[in-house]
Amino acid sequence: MSHRARAAFADLDILAVDDNAGMRALLERVLTAAGATVRSAASGAEALAHMEERVAHIVLCDQTMPSMSGIELTRRLRAAYGADPVIVILSGHNDVADARAAGVDDLLMKPISPRFLLERIEALLSARARPAA
Question: Residue 90's closest CA among 77, 75, 72, 71?
Fold first, then answer.
């Protein structure tokens, strides 16, 4: 990872939400190595509690979780926090229309390579930082 890319992650607070402990551990490992501060949640309800404590810059969320789907979590986050944070759904299904309608910034298909994940996050942050034309 380049110094510039690592600097882009240095001040990021990322919330990783997945009911699969192995996936949460993978996300924590990759994102922490990139320089981000990472919190994790095993459910949508736990994610909402984390967000009440401190709003994350980015939420990476599994689409299919028990009790509250990633789509429902996205709807609740958008209702509470508007356009912030950046929300990325990680999914084994290609439900782009539902994800976009809920307010997701990006949908990435599992399995996902760590390099691709970091590139997509960097691209999303770069797009947000550009002034509107």
Answer: 71
Q: Which amino acid is at 63?
A: Q
Written as six digits, the tokens of 78 are 């958008």
Residue 30 phi, psi (nearest 5): -65, -45
Q: What is the pLDDT along the chain (133 residues), one digit of tens a residue?
A: 555 556 778 889 999 999 999 999 999 999 999 999 999 999 999 999 999 999 999 999 999 999 999 999 999 999 999 988 999 999 877 677 888 899 999 999 988 899 999 999 999 988 877 655 5
Sequence letter at residue 29: R
Task: Find the helix packing angle between 44-53 and 70-81, rounded to 10°.
Answer: 20
Q: Where do the H-state alpha helices sit in the chain?
A: 3-10, 21-33, 44-53, 70-81, 96-102, 114-129
- What does DSSP assign to residue 66? S
| Structure-token pair, residue 101 | 């309608």
Domains identified in the chain and CATH numbers: 3-127 (3.40.50.2300)
Tokens (6 digits) for 105: 């910034």
